[in-house]
Amino acid sequence: MRRLCMWFTNKPASHLAGWVIAALVLTPAAQAAPSGASAPVAERDPVTLSVVAVNPSAEKVQVIPVRIDLPQEIKPADVLETGELSLEYDEDRAGYFVYKESVALQPKETRVFEVRVRDVWYVPQPQMDSLNYQTNLLLGKLKESEYFPTAKELADSISKRLGEIQATQDNETLSRKSRIGAYRYHLQTIEQVKEDIARMEKLLTFIGGPPIPEMMEESPLKSDAPSTTTTWLVIFLIIVFIGLLGGQFFFTWNRRGRLTKDVPVLRPAGSAGSSPRQGPSRPA
Fold it and tell me: Residue 124 CA to chain centroid, in angstroms?
């Protein structure tokens, strides 16, 4: 007789030219984040998934397989510890699991197998802040327009849903299964919030210009936009590279021209510049 019980627990052109090309590629990436960018968000405490293997027999040793199916959000990079178990991929369920083919259990023996994974079941705070910021920015731009009542209704709805997400994520009394289910529901809510923000942007286009460039300019969360210093540095490096390339071509053709000039020219007999041939003289 075999019995497995499973539950979730929560525990805390030249070398120089080549160098210039490399600088052109690497410099923007190194300067992408502005100096005022917020610090990386600390990860939440890891989650421990457990399975209990029990041998109810009082006399016989039993050899059984042990398996823990990981939630679909978990990827190999999120798995921190597997203990005696090995990480595998299940094509049928399109997800990962940890597994040990043979576990010998002595009579009445109980063993607990655990795998520690990152807590990925929450909407990151920077994303929540960004959605709130965009909503308030659009609402402010629509304040003096005839579309303000509609925009205010959308903004209030967005604020309410984001607040509910925040409250659920901060609720430490929820079980792990409940939190995973809530997270999957929150992802759908976030998509609906983005659609409502897009509606507010559409309202803004009715009274003026496109909102996206203005929001990119004003938003403090524009971490992907290169700074002015980076832009001018890239332009300068491009000019230097073109100058080096042009100088290399100039010196190469100049040297080739001098070599061609120093080569002696051989002319065949009878060609222009040679002595004329004397024909037979006529008798007087």
Answer: 15
